[in-house]
Amino acid sequence: MRTPVLTLLGIICLAAAMSWARSARHRYRLLGRIDPETAPDAYTLAWSTFRKEFHSASLYGLLALASFVNAVTEGAWGALVFSLVAIPALVSTAWARHAVREARIARQSIDIERRAQEALEQEDLAPKAWAGRLAPEDLPEFSGFEVGRVYQAGTGLMAGDFFDVFKASPTRLAAVIGDVVGHGIEASITAFQAKYLLRTFLRQFRDPAQALEELNRQMSSVERS
Question: Is 215 within 8 Å of 195 (Cβ atoms)?
C-alpha cells in the first residue's frame, strides 16, 4: 500500500513541478523584456513572480523525487532525500524579507490601474452626459399628445444634432430639431447654445420665425466676437 501511494504522490508532484516550470520559463522571458532602470517597479514585480513560480517548481520537483525514492527504498536514503525539501523552505524564508516591499508595489500598481480605469470611464461618460442634454432619451409627457423619439448621431456622441420638446406656454407645445454644421466638441457646444437659446426665445416670442431670427442674431454676434 505504501509504494503505490508514494508513486501516485510522486506523479502528481512531478506534474505540478512541470507546470510551474513552464510558467516560470515564460516569466523569465518576460523579465528579459523589462528595463530595470526605466521601469523598476514593473521589474521588481516581474522578478518576484518569476521567483515564486521557480520556487514552486523546485519544491514540487523535490517532493516528487522524495516520493519516488521513498517508494522504492526505505531507511536513511529516503529520509535524506526528503530532507532536501528544506532547501526551498530556507530560500523562501530568505526571500520573505522582500515580501512587504513587493506587496506595497503591487498595491500601488493596482491603485494606479484602478484610477486609470476610472478616468477612462469618466471620459466615456462625459460625452454620453453631454449628448443626453442635446438629445434626451426621456421626454416629458404632454396632455393630448403622444411624443416619441428616434435619434442616431452620424458622427458619434459629440455631434451637432439636437432636438427639444417643451411647453412654450400653457397652450403651446414647441418641437425643435436642429443640426449644427461640423462635428466634435465645437459643434456640440454650438448645438447646446442654440438649443437653450431657442427654448428661451420660443417662450418669449409667439411667432417661431421671430424666435429664429433672434437666435440667428445672437449666434451671429457670438461668432463675430
Answer: no
